Amino acid sequence: MKKIYLSLAFSFLVSAGFAQTKIGVAGKSTADVNANAVLELDATDRGLLLPRVALTKTTDATPLKAHVAGMTVYNTIAQNDVVPGFYYNDGTKWQQMVTYDNKAVKFFYMPTITFDTSVLTAAGKTETKNLYAEYAKQFSMQSGNAVASTNAPDTIPHYPAATDLYYYVTDFDPTVFKNIVINEKGVMTYEIIGTGTPTSIMNIVFVVK
User: Most exposed residue of 42, 55, 99, 198, measured as fewest CB within 10 angstroms of its CB?
Assistant: First the structure.
């Protein structure tokens, strides 16, 4: 019976000793662990190496079996809408961590598209342009006139859903266009009121949510 009691007592001591852990400094006791930390790393010449995985896209849990909120990894590959860097999982998709290089608002200009201004919009009608579809077609290299450098990925990383982005027209030629409206999926309606010239413009900006 004494052996059983001793074993139980030892088990409790071990459990208590590992309730909080400090790694990296020899001879340190659990009393040195920050009171708010279950695990504390201590080093001046070493870092924490997170798992390095190949994500496929933000909405796909792969290579995990499921989305797990709080999971953090380093992604090693650029494809679809992921690029090399740190990602955390919010329970439904992967979110890229903000670093010094991308701490500013993430935005980019719409790829070049054309508007046929040779025919004015009929009274009571509107023209339609799916901005997201045009962007996805070009970034997936399906425009019909796409060229990539040697060994480059088959597609440019891009956002998989139209609702991942906000859409803006920051400037346009008011002698050519009017009544511009863009819905949440990037579909723009507009009217053509004048024939475009070589200096006619429309600046379209995408902002990452």
Answer: 198
